[in-house]
Automatic annotation (TrEMBL):
Protein origin, superkingdom: Bacteria
Family listed: Belongs to the short-chain dehydrogenases/reductases (SDR) family.
CDD domains given in the database record: SDR_c
Assigned keywords, A-Z: NAD, Oxidoreductase
A GO molecular function held by the record: oxidoreductase activity
Organism: Brevibacterium marinum
Family annotation (SMART domains): PKS_KR (SM00822)
InterPro entries hit by this protein: KR_dom, NAD(P)-bd_dom_sf, Sc_DH/Rdtase_CS, SDR_fam
All copies of domain Ketoreductase, residue ranges: 6-183
Protein name per Swiss-Prot or TrEMBL: NAD(P)-dependent dehydrogenase (Short-subunit alcohol dehydrogenase family)
């Protein structure tokens, strides 16, 4: 299989899109250190996937969790071939109502966590010519209302990814971004809080549905992590049913 004997870190890997990615990487022969704040979801994951998964309970905004995840990948699986920075927590409010704690939540779990995990993983990825997949958002690219803290952090992640793609290319490390659209617990909560915005989002999807984390988004992440994408770096791939046009 295409990811045989390869080991990956997936942040937020215990539910939503992260769970879909964890399952998909394992189905392609890989092993996963799933880092998540949700211990119950982590226990369910371990029961389902056994020794192909190592669950690390931790908050991605803590830089020590990033170094611990890399250490665990080496201790349990003996290598690190890829990093998926998927976790991101945020609150939706009009930008004039956003408080310091709201900006802090989005930037610490989104931008800073992505940066810290990339820094922690760099040396190991340089030894395996590994790959990083970070997460963007169509809501950020289109400037969706109530998403200022989230959108700013997401576009910061894309800028960081492009620079890292250039700086780390001599070491053989590729860095790409996936911008997904998929039904997850996070989207369910948002759809209940913002039903009009949710209905408008669905209406704008050319393929006329929200994606499935495992079947529609995870294969794109697995592709970018695999050698099939060996000539791609610094790119944003839209796994969003055709919603966002980047031209
Ligand atoms: N679902 C979509 O349609 C959509 C659209 C655009 C972008 N995205 C992006 O895709 C990624 C995954 O989205 P999702 O919808 O699956 O999210 P989700 O909120 O449903 O799941 C996120 C996972 O991350 C974990 N998590 C949250 N905060 C954490 C923290 N501080 N430390 C460790 N783990 C933490 C949660 O426990 C959960 O398992 C995110 O980066 C999100 O911004 C999603």
């Amino acid at each position: 299989m295409r990811l045989d004997n390869e080991a990956f870190i997936v942040t937020g890997g215990a539910s939503g899109i992260g769970l879909g990615i964890t399952r998909r990487l394992i189905s392609e022969g890989g092993r996963v250190v799933a880092v998540d704040i949700d211990e119950d979801a982590g226990d369910r994951l371990t029961s389902e996937l056994g020794d192909k998964i190592h669950f690390l309970r931790g908050d991605v905004s803590d830089a020590q969790v990033a170094t611990a995840a890399v250490s665990e990948a080496l201790r349990v699986f003996g290598r690190l071939n890829g990093l998926v920075n998927n976790a991101h927590a945020s609150r939706q409010k009009p930008l004039l109502e956003l408080e310091k704690a709201d900006w802090q939540l989005s930037f610490s779990t989104g931008f800073e966590a992505t940066l810290n995990f990339m820094k922690a993983a760099h040396d190991e990825l340089a030894t395996t010519a590994g790959s990083v997949v970070n997460f963007g958002s169509g809501a950020a690219m289109s400037g969706q209302s109530n998403q200022a803290a989230y959108a700013a952090a997401k576009e910061a992640i894309r800028g960081l990814s492009r620079v890292a793609a250039n700086e780390w290319s001599p070491e053989g490390i590729r860095v790409n971004v996936v911008s997904p659209l998929a039904m997850t617990p996070g989207v369910e909560a948002w759809s209940q809080a913002q039903p009009d915005q949710y209905a408008q989002t669905v209406a704008n999807v050319p393929l006329a549905r929200f994606g499935d984390p495992e079947v529609d988004v995870a294969p794109v992440v697995a592709f970018l992590l695999s050698s099939d994408a060996r000539y791609m770096t610094g790119q944003t791939l839209m796994a969003d049913g055709g919603t966002q046009k980047l031209y």
